[in-house]
Amino acid sequence: MDIKTVGIIGTGTMGLGITQVCAKSGFNVVAVKATPGSPDKAKASLEGGLAKAVERGKMAADERDALVSRITYTNDEGEVAGCDLVIESIVEDLDTKKKLFSRLEAVCSPEALLTTNTSTLSVTAMMAVCKHRGRVAGLRHDRRAGAARRRRGRPQRETD
Fold first, then answer.
1. Can you spell out the DSSP letters for 73-97?
2. Alpha carbons 28 and 70: distance in angstroms, whole number
3. Would strands 136-141 and 151-155 be described as parallel, antiparallel, or unpaired?
4. How many Å apart are CA 134 and CA 75, to the nearest integer?
5. Which tens digits make up the pLDDT trace of 9-21?
6. Concatenated DSSP letters for 25-37?
7. CA separation for the pair 138, 11 (Å, rounded)
């Protein structure tokens, strides 16, 4: 599968870090705020961190501009419908995550990969609500995702 667009559900610390890593890697990103309210605070937080990186000489201004241009912020989960990969990074509550996966399966293409960033919950339990279980997996990002390079995939028995 050729991944071009990544959807990130959750714009907290981890979600924004994952958003930054994906955009820096050249992917178009749809960052979805999972809680009520505008995603403007998340956008300002990520862009503020990038501005500091430019000030400190850790990133060129044109690199920052290119990265920022690849990110779309929204609070509408339906915006991930065209994404090739969706990474869930919401509150660590199994019922909440299962409900999210059920909604994602309804809006995303059957070919889209649906992943969770959980470090403590059962990926198998999350995938149980999905008809297309072979496309669901764990994709754990380290705590400081924006700075980290290491990712751990956790395919399950039914993951293709």
1. EES-GGGGGG-SEEEE---S-HHHH
2. 5
3. antiparallel
4. 27
5. 999 999 999 999 9
6. TT-EEEEE--SSS
7. 18
Tokens matching residue 2: 């050729």
What's the one-letter identity of residue 5? T
CA atoms in the 13 A half-sphere facing the CB of 28? 10
User: Hey, what are 160's tokens?
Assistant: 């293709």
Q: What are 68-126's pLDDT values in tens digits?
A: 999 999 999 999 999 999 999 999 999 999 999 999 999 999 999 999 998 889 888 88
| C-alpha span between 143 and 146 (Å, rounded) | 9
User: Which domains, from first to last, does the chain contain?
Assistant: 5-155 (3.40.50.720)
Pairing of β 5-9 and β 28-32: parallel
